[in-house]
Design goal:
Elements: H1 2-24, H2 30-47
Helix pairs in contact: 1-2
Length: about 60
């Protein structure tokens, strides 16, 4: 479960950062950038607090 949260968090982070570069290179328009950044931000804020700053439990 923790790994899924980490993957979703970094996907949200990517959705926040990558569209800015795509707008800069005129690949997408600013309206799409705003939508993708909002989705990425919500995904990051909704998943990151559950796995960050927590100790790993060893299941070995």
């Amino acid at each position: 479960m923790r790994k899924l949260l980490i993957i979703l968090s970094f996907l949200g982070l990517a959705l926040t950062v990558i569209p800015a570069f795509l707008v800069y290179h005129e690949v997408i328009d600013f309206a799409n950038h705003k939508t993708l950044a909002l989705i990425g931000t919500l995904l990051w804020l909704g998943t990151a607090p559950f796995w960050m700053n927590k100790k790993k439990t060893s299941n070995a």
